[in-house]
Amino acid sequence: MADATPEETAPYGTGPAAAAPTARKRVRTHTLQQMKDRGEKWTMLTAYDQYTAATFDEAGVEVLLVGDSASNNVYGNESSLPVTVDELIPLVRAVSRSAKHSLVLADLPFGSYQGSPEQAFHTAVRFMKEAGAHAVKLEGGLAMVPQVKLLTDAGIPVCAHIGFTPQAEHNLGGYRVQGRGAGAARLLEEAKALEAAGAFAVVMEMVPAPAAAEVTKALHIPTVGIGAGVDCDAQVLVWQDMLGLNTGKAPRFVKRYADLHTVMLNAAREYVDDVKGGAFPSAEHSFAE
To answer: Where in the cell is it found (predicted)?
Structure first.
C-alpha cells in the first residue's frame, strides 16, 4: 500500500466532523434573544449523531436539540421515559463535537431532575462537562421553578418546556392538547414564572395557537413552538418526522419535507441486487496489483 492515495487510506466515515472550521459565529443564548428582539424567527431540530448534526449546522439551524426523544427515535423504545442520562451523554457528545455553529441543547431525561434542584444541577453538570452541551432543557411548569433558578444561578442556561410534556404523558392522560379554556391562564402563569427564574427560552408543545401567541407576546424571552402555531419565536421538530424517516402516522403539527425512508429503502434494495448479481464491486471499486 506504499503507493496508496490519501483517499484510499482515510478512516471510514471521515466527513463532516473533519471539515474545515466555519467562519460563522457560534449561536449563543443571547443570539436567540437578539433575534426575538429584532422580530426574526429561528429554528431548532433534534440531532443525535455526527452527520445529522453537521448537516443541520451547515443548513443554518440555530439550535440542535439532543432530545430524550432519542428514546423512541434511536433506541427503539415506545416512549421517551426509558432513556437514561448515560445513554444520552454519548449522543450529546457526538453532536457537540460536530456542530460548529449551532447551539447544542441537551434534554434532561425523566427521573434525572424532578427530585430536587440539587439533582437537576448534578445531572446538568454531567451534560455540560462530559458531553459539551451548551444548555439543557427540562419539562414542567411551576414545580420546576426552583430547578431553573438553581441551574441558571450556577451558570447553566436552561430552556423550559410547558404545555404537553411527554415525560408526564401518563399523568396528563396521553398525548392531549394542553392550555385550552382556563388552561391558557395557567400556561401564561407558568411561562412567566419560568422566565423570572432565569430560563432563556420556553418550549410550548401541543398548545392552541391563540394561547401560544398570547404567551409569546407577554414574554421577553423567546418561545419555541411544536404544535403551538405560527406566532412562536421559533419552531422545533424531531428530524426523523420532518424528513420522513419515521413512516408511522405523523402528528398534526409535523410537515414532512422529504421521504428519506423511500430513498434509503430503494438504495438498500439496489445494493442488495448489485451484490447478489455480481455488479458490485466492479473494477471501479477494486484495487489493482
So the answer is: Cytoplasm
| Residue (of 220, 251, 219) closest to 238 by Cα position | 251
Burial bucket for residue 98 (CB in 10 Å: 0-12, 13-18, 19+): buried
Q: Which pLDDT band holds residue 163 (cuts at 50, 70, 90)?
A: very high
Pick from 179, 181, 182: which is nearest to 191 by CA? 179
* Known binding-site positions: 68-69, 107, 137, 139
Active site members: 205
**Where is the binding site for 3-methyl-2-oxobutanoate, in residues?**
68-69, 107, 137
Q: Cα dist. 26→113, 117, 126, 274 in Å?
A: 28, 29, 22, 44
Q: What is the DSSP letter of 76?
A: -
Nearest to 218 by CA among 237, 190, 198: 190
| 184-233 tens-digit pLDDT | 999 999 999 999 999 999 999 999 999 999 999 999 999 999 999 999 99
